[in-house]
Amino acid sequence: MSQMDLEKIEKAITMILEAVGEDPGREGLLDTPKRVAKMYAEVFEGLDKDPRQYFETVFHENHDEVVLVKDIPFHSMCEHHLVPFFGHAHIAYIPRNGVVAGLSKLARAVETTAKRPQLQERITSTVANAMMEMLNPIGVYVIIEAEHMCMTMRGIKKPGAKTVTTVARGIYEHDDVKRAEILSLLK
Ligand SMILES: Nc1nc2c(ncn2[C@@H]2O[C@H](COP(=O)(O)OP(=O)(O)OP(=O)(O)O)[C@@H](O)[C@H]2O)c(=O)[nH]1
Ligand SMILES: [Zn+2]
C-alpha cells in the first residue's frame, strides 16, 4: 500500500463517472471516488508483497507424507477487466527432511498473491514456486477453482462456469499416483 496514490485513483473514478454520463456531484456519488480508492488500496495490497516471506519461518517435524490444506477461500481481480474472480485454493506438499511451514502461511501466500491484478494461472504458479523455493519440499501440488465475474456479468455471460488450474512441482510433475492421492482427498 506504500506506493498507492489514493488521490490519483479518486480523480480517475470521478472521470469514469463523468465519462459514463453520471453526475459525480450528486449526493449518492459524492464519497464514491474516496471509497473506491480505499477499496483498491485494500484489494491490491499484495502489490508490494512477496508471498515467499511467509515461508521464512519453518518448523521441524518428522512428517514425510502429504500435508494438504484445502478449501482456502480467496478473491482476486482479473487483470483484463478489473472485476473479481473468486473461489478456493487447495495446496498439497510433501516436506523434505521434516521442514514444514505453518498451516496458515499457505493461506496467507494465496491471499497475498491474489491481492493484485491477476490471472488465475499466475496465482497458482506463484504459490507453488514460492513453496518450492523456500521449503525445498519433495513436491508441491496447487489446485485453484474459481468463478470469473468477467465471464458472468458481461461478455460470454456464463454464470457458474468454473475454471480449474493446477501446478505440479517436484514429484507431482511425474507421479500420477501421488497426484491421484490428492484428487481423492479433495473429493
Ligand atoms: N487465462 C486467463 N484468462 C482470463 C483470466 N481472467 C479473465 N480471462 C480472460 O481474458 C480474456 C480477455 O480477452 P479479450 O478478447 O482481450 O477481451 P474481451 O473482448 O473483453 O473478451 P471476452 O471476455 O471474451 O468478451 C477473456 O477471454 C477472459 O475470459 C484468467 O485468470 N486467466
Ligand atoms: Zn476478466
UniProtKB/TrEMBL annotation:
Report what the protein is called: GTP cyclohydrolase 1
- Extent of the signal sequence: none
Q: Does the keyword GTP-binding apply?
A: yes
Q: Which reaction does it catalyse?
A: GTP + H2O = 7,8-dihydroneopterin 3'-triphosphate + formate + H(+)
Assembly information from the UniProt record: Homopolymer.
Q: Which residues bind Zn(2+)?
A: C78, H81, C150
Sorted keywords for this record are: GTP-binding, Hydrolase, Metal-binding, Nucleotide-binding, One-carbon metabolism, Zinc
What's the EC number here?
A: 3.5.4.16
Q: Which GO terms describe its cellular component?
A: cytoplasm
